[in-house]
């Protein structure tokens, strides 16, 4: 396997990872801020009990491969299960996505949250204007106290604005302002391709049969972007 998708090995302590998780995860990088580490050596460690208590992630999870990998990533980094959040916003696949969400969330452990948004319309395949912004705002609205990170499994390789670095930066600023700096938006796979996410799942032995990906709902159509990605992966 190529080393491209492997995260850099963190040789620093868990305490450091927790204290810096915002900076390190936000940009899809896990390379610690060495300047900050150097500074910290001259001071006391941050109040780690507080840091540990507040470093709680809320993961937007559809029951698909990307969000499963994202939730697993947070669980492995923070050494505890994040809270998984499912939103039914009228997507055609809501029913099957919810079933997959339940399977994946059970496999990961941790709490689950749900929201049903009545937008008075149903959505098919392809771009849904404002979708990820909507999901992040819903997560902010429902986030339990002490949530410090809202995470989303967006990745590279699409032309969607709300999967871009620019979008992430804007969403993060927006959420920070809303929350007085208490909550950040994280996207650990922002710069990863779909292939790298699949490779992560393979390496971590995630059971992808738990997931559901077709945008249409029902039996996988084989034609939508999610089905094509899935088929490319299965064919390897
Ligand atoms: Zn499909």
CATH homologous superfamily placement: HUPs
Distance between the termini: 13 Å
- The CATH architecture assignment turns out to be 3-Layer(aba) Sandwich
Give the overall form. globular
What is the H/E order? HHHHEHEHEHEHEHH
Radius of gyration, in Å, reads: 18 Å
**Distinct small molecules bound, one entry per kind:** zinc ion
Structure description:
With 236 residues, the protein is an alpha/beta fold. The protein is 43% helix and 10% strand. The chain is built from 10 helices and 5 strands; from the N terminus they run ααααβαβαβαβαβαα. Strands 3-2-1-4-5 form a 5-stranded parallel sheet, sandwiched between helices. The longest helix is centred in the middle third of the chain and has 15 residues. Bound molecules: zinc ion. The site of zinc ion (ZN) has 9 residues, from helix 10.
Properties at a glance:
five-stranded parallel beta sheet; disordered N terminus; 236 residues; 43% helix; single chain; binds zinc ion; alpha/beta; Rossmann fold
Helices, strands, pairings?
Blueprint: H1 14-19, H2 21-26, H3 34-41, H4 48-54, E1 56-60, H5 65-78, E2 83-88, H6 94-108, E3 112-116, H7 131-142, E4 147-151, H8 165-178, E5 184-186, H9 194-203, H10 225-234
